[in-house]
Design brief:
CATH class of the largest domain: Mainly Alpha
Helix content: 25-40%
Strand order of the largest sheet: 1-2-3-5-4
Structural class: alpha+beta
Strand content: 15-25%
Number of domains: 4
CATH architecture of the largest domain: Orthogonal Bundle
Radius of gyration: 33 Å
CATH superfamily of the largest domain: Transferase(Phosphotransferase) domain 1
Length: about 575
Amino acid sequence: MRKAFIRDEFDRFLAPLARFNYENDVLNMTQPFLNNEMCKRSLFTFMRAAYDCTNDERAPCPDMNSIVNELEKALEQQLQYQSLYRPNLERLTSQLSHMKISLADISFATYNFSQTYFYIKTMFYDVYKVEYEDWDTKNSASIEEKNKTEGHKIRYNIFIKRLHLRNDKAREVFGTEIEMLTTCKHRNIGSLLGFCDEDPEKILVVEGASNGYLMEYFVNIKHKDMSILTWEKRLKICLDVACGLKYLHREMEDQKSVIIRSFWTGSIALDENLGAKFVEFGLSMFLSPNQKFLNLNSTKGHPSYSDPEYYRTGKLTRESDVYNLGVVLFEILCGRFASDQMYKMESKSGLVDVARRRYLKGTLMEIIDPIIKEANKYSINTFVDIAYRCVDEIQERRPDMKLIVNQLEEALEHQLQDIKGFYRPSLELLTSELSQRRLSLADFPPFFSRTNPYLSGVFYDVYRAEVAFPNKKDSDYVEERNESEWNRWIPVTIKRLRPREDIRGEVLFGIDMDILATCKHPNIVTLLGFCCEDPEKILVVEDASNGYLFEYLLNDNDKDMLLVYFG
């Protein structure tokens, strides 16, 4: 706001300067205190009307009806912005008065916010976890129908989220959370059970998540770690997160949509089936129908997760959430936070920059979580391809949520088909379970260097030897042996996995090891020991003194078909 003529200033005529700024998309003429309150669409509509009014040519100037229509439109856009993007906390709490919970009740449930009930700290909240009992309502038409002789009580977990902000931002975050959690209805969005707004306290009560927050698995707290999350489980979590975003972007009622703006693994909770739900929306913003973006004067969010184009220009789009999703996908793939120091050593920007470079160089597999390296390669490749596209630096080049969901479903399908069609045990788990039969690699090299294979197959070189084993007739477990029993030399077959470029040999080794250790029958050889020290993978099994049946068919090793038939 300034006078149309200001004495002693070079640019003292306002109209020409304003027209110049409008034509060059410069918005530095508004009063600073209005910047955070103004809807950019409303401002542009207002400026367009003013620009048309100050046209040097009289003929093209709009009439008053057109000007009034434009100003009404600007006002409508501003009012809509205020109601959608900056929730009125008083209005919300009044409309949802049935969900109010007193501070006294919450203090009682948490023993005055005792550390005993403290669960975790997130971006905006101190989270407390409490349990309560209620009647099982699944098979009952109404609560009134139940009495103490019907049904049974079940135990529920709930999260009590105490806002730790104590500034002007607190009201906006709290109001946004309430509006989002009550407006957005989807299986991958958390549910609000109640709230407390008694100054200075602002508290949300939300449905609990039996398996906590996704972030807990990255830092190995409360007996959680990434080893629990198999590749199949990780894919399902990613798919849940993507489906939640797809709903927020394109499937809400009244054609509204939501941009979360900044989320991380601490914004995602896991239910009893490891189903993922968004549970924090403190920085979220609504988009009205047909609105493609918001221009914001201030950017918020964690630099490791937020869209770089949004951070640079203030332009917030649905694709900003897509970038954020891509960061979370790479975190789940690699098993570390995006800001982990391991990535900072390679790039100051952290995981995303490292992942992009390695993707282009073909070395991304070197940094993925070792726990999932045995997963189906087509599944991982499909996953990596879509994650890479999500973190493109240019918003317009990122995929939409429909395509992302389709690609993640394809990655999951590859993994499920792999499991159904080709059993692949976890080699790490097997070697741990069978640790008593583990042999040292140091026992083998001298033998291999002076002995030729008895047979060489597609996957194994096979050797025959004699080793000292216990004298107990039925002892095939190493843990049953003691030093006094190592007095009998017995023949064994040593199967040494041959080097291969693909993982099929390693998979077969795991299958052989699992089946031979599990199956106990006179017609199945016994696993006596194994060695699994990279690059060697070796099985030691009981020997068959007459060799392999196929040798008789080939008349190999001085054997021929001198086999008598017994009917």
